[in-house]
Task: inverse folding
């Protein structure tokens, strides 16, 4: 029984809690393709999304997840809310709390924002990405996708390539994968991959071929220019030449290795067109699995 009030990150989740979410997502997935299986089990649950940063996949998959379970789900349009009149995050949360909201789903540019909100509201809070800290639901859907295609995690080699320094996706995946028994290698320019990440039980390198060698999963990450205070490499074309995943690089991985990316993908930069659209790619399957995982979380938190 999932007994947490909030889902703020994978750092604090146990292996058993992660597996409970993944198992529940497996039960939910059939509802995506078959409308006849959808239900109104959360018809008395009120959900609101608070996205202080732009989003397509995360926001829409939460909206659809709530709809497929019959929840009352609404979006607080930040651009037209009292946030633009100077209302604080805590004040916004407390006002929504008084309106009877059961679950608040928030993305925010400030690291720790979801933890701050959770401490000040009675509603359950789901972290949909906070600064450069964590993006737990993305990592959970990544884990679900890996298990769906590869069967488990013990002994897997997962290589994550790109802007590690600014990636909340990378951090959440590291927390989840290491708890489940996978080997994780983080790769990219030395300016974007800190050796301090090794303290989390992973390997770091700037040698992309060595990083990809015998990998079961090759995951690219978006170059987050909006978060970089200084340019971390000479140009996007230079990055693509040295660190982009193309067919030649992918040959170093296992023959049936999965190709993944949280999106949006900068085509021809982090990955070549051929790799993104190739037979090993499960990038679009990740988007579908994101709905299943988020349905699972709404179900588990909505029952508490």
Result:
């Amino acid at each position: 029984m999932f007994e947490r009030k909030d889902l703020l990150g994978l750092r604090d989740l146990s292996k058993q809690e992660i597996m409970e979410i993944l198992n529940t997502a497996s039960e939910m997935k059939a509802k995506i393709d078959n409308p006849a299986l959808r239900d109104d089990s959360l018809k008395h649950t009120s959900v609101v999304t608070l996205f202080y940063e732009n989003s397509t996949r995360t926001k829409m998959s939460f909206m659809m997840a709530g709809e497929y379970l019959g929840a009352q789900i609404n979006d607080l349009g930040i651009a037209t809310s009292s946030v633009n009149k100077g209302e604080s995050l805590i004040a916004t949360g407390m006002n929504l709390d008084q309106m009877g909201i059961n679950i608040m789903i928030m993305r925010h540019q400030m690291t720790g924002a979801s933890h701050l909100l959770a401490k000040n509201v009675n509603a359950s809070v789901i972290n949909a990405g906070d600064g450069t800290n964590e993006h737990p639901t993305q990592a959970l859907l990544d884990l679900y996708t890996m298990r769906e295609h590869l069967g488990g995690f013990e002994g897997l080699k997962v290589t994550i390539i790109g802007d590690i320094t600014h990636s909340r996706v990378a951090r959440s995946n590291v927390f989840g994968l290491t708890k489940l028994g996978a080997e994780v290698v983080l790769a990219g320019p030395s300016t974007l991959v800190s050796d301090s990440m090794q303290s989390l039980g992973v390997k770091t390198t700037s040698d992309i071929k060595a990083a990809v060698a015998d990998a079961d999963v090759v995951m690219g990450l978006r170059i987050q220019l909006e978060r970089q205070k200084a340019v971390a490499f000479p140009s996007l074309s230079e990055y693509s030449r040295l660190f982009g995943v193309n067919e030649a690089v992918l040959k170093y991985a296992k023959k049936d290795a999965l190709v993944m990316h949280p999106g949006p993908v900068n085509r021809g930069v982090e990955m070549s067109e051929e790799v993104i659209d190739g037979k090993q790619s499960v990038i679009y399957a990740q988007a579908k699995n994101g709905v299943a995982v988020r349905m699972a979380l709404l179900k588990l938190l909505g029952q508490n």
Observations:
- The chain has two domains: 15-134+287-302, 136-286.
